[in-house]
């Protein structure tokens, strides 16, 4: 999971969403009305489609799930579930792109909250996941730094085997790309450097590269990269960082 930047809505869509919310607000059965509106054919065509395009542009890699970062995002997920707060059904700030596994099989209507009622689930568009989670690169496993991090690992299944194994493989790919980038820089082969950057940016598990870039400038970086000290110097290169940091 990485930090994402949410753009402003285009004018027509920004005007339409409050109208749909008002229709829910005036209903005696808000949840039922919200579900019916969300599934309405004209809404799917004129609201879902542009929302999806915006979310796809925000997503890491090639339209990856904003929770697991592995599978392609296929669903518009309601961060705060419709069943809990139907008035946020058409709230742009409540929409994320998710794969069907994260959305329908794992998260579903789960939405843990703290004692003060604030969400324990991480929203990558409003907070930096790296403040709550640390990725163990050698194992591909997330370790929680906060209660919010722990809840997110649990709800989204961030340490399920297919993800941990995928992150380990992604680390290998990133290291190969870093070697290619370094070779291109040494040989003044700009196309090699460009291809290496594009490969890293396009692959699944964008969180792996982001974690490596963050850890390269953190205390104890030399220990983290003890087996690949050459990679540490590359990850600290200002030019590379400007191209890869989300």
Short description:
The chain has helices spanning 11-25, 30-39, 41-58, 100-107, 147-156, 161-186, 190-202, 206-215, 221-224, 229-235, 238-244; strands at residues 75-78, 95-98, 133-136, 141-144. It is mainly α and 246 residues long.
Into how many domains do the coordinates divide? 2
DSSP summary: helix tally: 11
SSE order: HHHEEHEEHHHHHHH
- What is the overall pLDDT average? 94
Our measurement of the CA-to-CA distance between the termini, rounded to an integer number of angstroms, reads 11 Å
What portion of the residues fall into strands of 2 or more residues?
A: 5-15%
Helix content: 40-55%
Shape: elongated
Structural class: mainly alpha
**In which order are the strands of the major sheet placed?**
1-2
What gyration radius follows from the Cα positions, in whole Å?
20 Å
Number of strands: 4
| Main sheet makeup | 2 strands, antiparallel
**Uncertain segments of ≥5 residues (pLDDT<50)?**
none
What labels describe this entry?
246 residues; mainly alpha; 2 domains; two-stranded antiparallel ribbon
Topology:
Blueprint: H1 11-25, H2 30-39, H3 41-58, E1 75-78, E2 95-98, H4 100-107, E3 133-136, E4 141-144, H5 147-156, H6 161-186, H7 190-202, H8 206-215, H9 221-224, H10 229-235, H11 238-244
Antiparallel strand pairs: 1-2, 3-4
Helix pairs in contact: 1-2, 6-7, 6-8
What report would you give on this structure?
The chain is mostly helical and 246 residues long. The protein folds into two domains: 107 residues, no CATH class; 84 residues, no CATH class. Helix content is 52%, strand content 7%. The chain has eleven helices and four strands. The protein has a two-stranded antiparallel ribbon with strand order 1-2. A two-stranded antiparallel ribbon has the order 3-4. Helix 1 packs antiparallel against helix 2, helix 6 packs antiparallel against helix 7 and helix 6 packs across helix 8. The N and C termini lie close together (11 Å).
